[in-house]
Design the sequence.
């Protein structure tokens, strides 16, 4: 894959001035194959406001990937579907069967991922649903020699998502992006998670949303130049890493 880009559209951490911050997460991923909205934040009006400010047209989306069913990740879905009813929506089988039934009539195509990894487009796939409370899947980008993983809240554990991705592919996972769900973790649990990421070969991290201030500070200290700031409006080039 050529260089992919990721732009954070919704986050509780500020990034660029003039954009709204609320609890939740959403990001736009552009690859040569697809333009993907990863999660939709907690509020559709705020999501669309930020998209307009960043000159991003919802009608140009090919796919909406929903990591898990919590309100702060699916709250903006209706607003996107109203403007782009033909978009493909990707969820996993842990979502409510009532939501699954309703979405079948509200979007262009509905893809329901099981527990196995699922290719969605060239260079794009789901990790497959991992058991947690709630169950969750992450989006994997193939950057030629390495992989990037984007998680919503990483309820199964960010290190578990990385390990699942690496074992399914054999390629190193260099990028870990999104919510790492360490906001309620103590210092020892944070240190263990960071040590696991390092051991698994992750070299660049973009921790935001529910990662928590303490974990972000620890990640910044450990990763140094490999720590990339998140926040609303940040645009990150996921350059394929030459090994």
Sequence:
């Amino acid at each position: 894959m050529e260089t992919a880009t990721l732009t954070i559209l919704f986050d509780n951490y500020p990034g660029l001035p003039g954009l709204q911050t609320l609890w939740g997460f959403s990001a736009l991923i552009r690859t040569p194959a697809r333009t993907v909205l990863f999660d939709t934040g907690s509020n559709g009006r705020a999501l669309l406001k930020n998209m307009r400010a960043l000159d991003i047209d919802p009608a140009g989306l090919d796919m909406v990937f929903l990591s898990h069913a919590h309100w702060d990740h699916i709250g903006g879905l209706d607003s996107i579907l109203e403007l782009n009813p033909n978009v493909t929506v990707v969820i996993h089988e842990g979502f409510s069967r009532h939501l699954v039934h309703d979405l079948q009539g509200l979007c262009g195509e509905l893809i329901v991922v099981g527990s196995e990894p699922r290719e969605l487009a060239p260079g794009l796939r789901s990790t497959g649903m991992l058991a947690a409370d709630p169950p969750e899947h992450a989006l994997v980008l193939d950057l030629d020699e390495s992989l990037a993983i984007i998680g919503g809240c990483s309820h199964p554990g960010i290190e578990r998502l990385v390990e699942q991705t690496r074992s399914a592919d054999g390629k190193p996972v260099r990028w870990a992006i999104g919510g790492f769900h360490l906001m309620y973790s103590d210092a020892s649990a944070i240190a263990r998670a960071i040590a696991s990421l390092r051991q698994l070969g992750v070299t660049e991290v973009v921790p935001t949303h529910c990662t928590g201030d303490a974990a972000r500070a620890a990640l910044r200290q450990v990763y140094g130049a490999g720590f990339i700031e998140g926040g609303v409006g940040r645009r990150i080039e996921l350059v394929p890493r030459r090994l």
The chain has a mean pLDDT of 95.
